[in-house]
Amino acid sequence: MDEKAKSLKLETLLKTLGLPKTKNHQEKQSLEHIIAEAVKRISTRTCKSKNIIEINGSNTNELADIVADAKNTMDGNAYTEFLEILISEIMKMQTEEIKKSKGENSSPKFTALCQGHGSNEIININTRPANSRIDAITGAATITKGDYKMFIEKYNELGGLRLSTRKLLDTCAAILTKNNQYRGNGEVDRFVQISLKEYMQLLKKPLTKSTTDSVRKRVKEDLEILYFVSIEWRERQKGKTRDYQKMRIVTSQGIKQGNITIGFSPEFAHYLLNAYVMQYPYALLGLDERNANSYSLGRRLLLHRSMDNNTRKKTANIISIKSLLQACPDIPSYEEVMRNDRHIDWRIKTPFENALNALSDFITWATKQLQNFYK
Length: 375
Fold this sequence. Notes:
Elements: H1 3-17, H2 31-49, H3 61-73, H4 76-101, E1 110-115, H5 117-124, E2 133-134, E3 141-145, E4 148-152, H6 155-158, H7 163-179, E5 191-195, H8 196-202, H9 209-227, E6 229-237, E7 240-248, E8 250-256, E9 259-264, H10 266-273, E10 276-281, H11 292-306, H12 308-312, H13 321-325, H14 334-339, H15 344-357, H16 364-371
Antiparallel strand pairs: 1-10, 2-3, 3-4, 4-6, 5-9, 6-7, 8-9
Helix pairs in contact: 1-4, 2-4, 3-4, 7-9, 11-15
């Protein structure tokens, strides 16, 4: 953008906001921090209050305050750069709102995900040391949950499954679903790939160098963990019980030239593509990973909601707390708590409700109904 066009664009915004022209001010805060806070405040207001920001409209009071704060804490060059980025963000939001008003989606909110008991327990199972039987010689771990068993080689070195590991697995399983015909007879393409940049966008991570390096490191670790995981289980299908013998989840993995690649094992890929399909919301990937229960809990609620049988029975919006607690890897069972300190409130009830509250942006119906069960 040439200097004349840049000046005109900035002055147009300033005039709309009722602010004076740019002046040199001593910079008191970092440009990156102020921009992040401004965009965060705009995004939060736009999403939660549905208050659309319009450059030529009247919904500019908060935005004016943001720009005024920036003007008073930046020198002329930083302030100019800040305004350029702010304009870009506003234009982007306007474009998104125009698309929504026309019934267009800038990006899909849901994707098909092949899943079954065999894959769902990978998301739900507690793989912490206290719940694992670790071989003192090999360092491998065996985790048992009813008729389901998970085996993790090099457990002493790699540890158990993290929330980031489970998110990565679901993302790759969704790509596998997209790339293949569900319950088809043709050859299965069991190799999936996604760019690190696209994956970070799904996780709602900023594309800064430091964050990219951090996510790349974590993805490498998660790929390594998945490579050393095997599972075996018993599953009820169409009125019959079937035993699935021990199988690997993935047989190849890596991240190279900015692309994440996974080769699912033939057995696991075949199982997924012949199991069941749920509508998986991309919003789950953006959940804060400090609450390990919210992701698996949200996934379990949406899985229940997407089952045709539950819709037919009119039970799609009703699910027992006991069933949901079984999907929370970091919440101990009622029996375990009663065997130990018996503190049900802070070991079960509080973390469970905190996990539900973390999902309130897109499954408030579940939160409201389930909280009533405690009253």
